[in-house]
Amino acid sequence: xxxxxxxxxxxxxxxxxxxxxxxxxxxxxxxxxxxxxxxxxxxxxxxxxxxxxxxxxxxxxxxxxxxxxxxxxxxxxxxxxxxxxxxxxxxxxxxxxxxxxxxxxxxxxxxxxxxxxxxxxxxxxxxxxxxxxxxxxxxxxxxxxxxxxxxxxxxxxxxxxxxxxxxxxxxxxxxx
Length: 176
Ligand SMILES: [Cu+2]
Known about the structure:
Blueprint (H helix, E strand, L loop, with lengths): L2 H22 L1 E3 L4 E4 L4 E8 L18 E6 L3 E8 L10 E3 L31 E7 L4 E6 L11 E7 L6 E4 L4
Bound molecules: copper (II) ion (CU).
């Protein structure tokens, strides 16, 4: 096969792969999300290391971008984070821009105060922290663990903010 043919095949493969990934994202209504449509606020209970997924480096059992939380523009987002403590690794949470490459540790919050304490050392098993911010700009952001090496190992998921959304929703690419 010539080069043009190969490039065309690879491109087709990429298109098909992204299409399959897109249609595989199922909407779920998790118990860890509470919506107050009157106050335009959403509360997320985010567990670091919720199960064994991705070597326990996950949020609510999802890593490597398997979970996408979608929030309408202008809503208040409250995050109650807990390190569930599987494998006894420390974990933290910060909302960052989807930068390339991902930070080895830490991370610059995309919204003011959108991060837990002990961002790099991480919260220990059983420790909790909360933060709240207004999703006042559109875009695709990441839930990101700031502990050294965790984010690049896949401890991240998506947070999308859009004005098209009328209510918060959660989509996952893998059933648990
Ligand atoms: Cu972590």
